[in-house]
Amino acid sequence: NAGVTQTPKFQVLKTGQSMTLQCAQDMNHEYMSWYRQDPGMGLRLIHYSVGAGITDQGEVPNGYNVSRSTTEDFPLRLLSAAPSQTSVYFCASKGRYTEAFFGQGTRLTVV
Amino acid sequence: AQSVSQHNHHVILSEAASLELGCNYSYGGTVNLFWYVQYPGQHLQLLLKYFSGDPLVKGIKGFEAEFIKSKFSFNLRKPSVQWSDTAEYFCAVTSDQKVTFGIGTKLQVIP
């Protein structure tokens, strides 16, 4: 049982480049979300989804896009990377009566 | 909107000292409460959770937390900390599936 699989683990981007962070879960959870973690700021919600075809903005959505075409997958797209997006990104999934399960994280550096 | 406050951002303790980390949440409806731990360089792992029932919840590694509904609190405790408890601790609250985290408390245990 893989749980939440998040790739890549590390990424360096140049300003203006785009990329997609992948997230997949095999627990049939309805709820999936993306967070960014910055020193002293805890985890801030970027986007979330309560089911296939449904997405919504979190606390810090600017510069990021998501889609949820299947229950399993919830990719996060950076449209035009900026140094302010240098962070550690976590994907999480949650069942209706469970805790949130986290991926291993992606350490992203934008230069 | 729900919010979570963690009062202690950085705690330093000697081994064998007792630990109590404060967590208060703001939400008027039914909530589920969690404590997560993040060891350096790793993702978040669940320590304990409260959905209903006994407000005193026991988790892994000797941690426990007490839900006090009248005080909107869910404080984390451990009678005797170990050096291996050095980590960052996050309180989280969920309602309607959305998970909101506190800013985190960094615990440093000195041998």
Helix content of chain B: under 10%
**Global outline of chain A:** globular
What's the SSE pattern of chain B?
Answer: EEEEEEEEEEEE
Structural class of the helices, strands and pairings of chain A?
mainly beta
Integer average pLDDT of chain A: 95
The total beta strand count of chain A reads: 11
- Number of beta strands of chain B: 12
What percent of the residues of chain A sit in helical stretches (DSSP H or I)?
Answer: under 10%
Q: Please tally the helical runs of chain A, counting DSSP H or I stretches of 4 or more residues.
A: 0
Poorly predicted parts of chain B: none
Describe the structure.
The complex is a heterodimer of chains A (111) and B (111). Chain A has strands at residues 4-7, 10-13, 19-25, 31-38, 42-51, 54-57, 64-66, 76-78, 87-94, 100-102, 106-110. Chain A is mainly beta and 111 residues long. In chain A, strands 2, 4, 5, 6, 9, 10 and 11 form a seven-stranded mixed beta sheet that branches. Chain A has a four-stranded antiparallel beta sheet with strand order 1-3-8-7, with no helix packed on it. In chain A, a hairpin with a 2-residue loop joins β5 and β6 (54-57). Chain A is globular and about 40 Å long. The N and C termini of chain A lie far apart (36 Å). With 111 residues, chain B is mostly beta strands. In chain B, 0% of the residues lie in helices and 56% in strands. In chain B, the strands form three sheets. In chain B, strands 2, 5, 6, 10, 11 and 12 form a six-stranded mixed beta sheet that branches. In chain B, strands 3-9-8-7 form a four-stranded antiparallel beta sheet, with no helix packed on it. In chain B, strands 1-4 form a two-stranded antiparallel sheet.
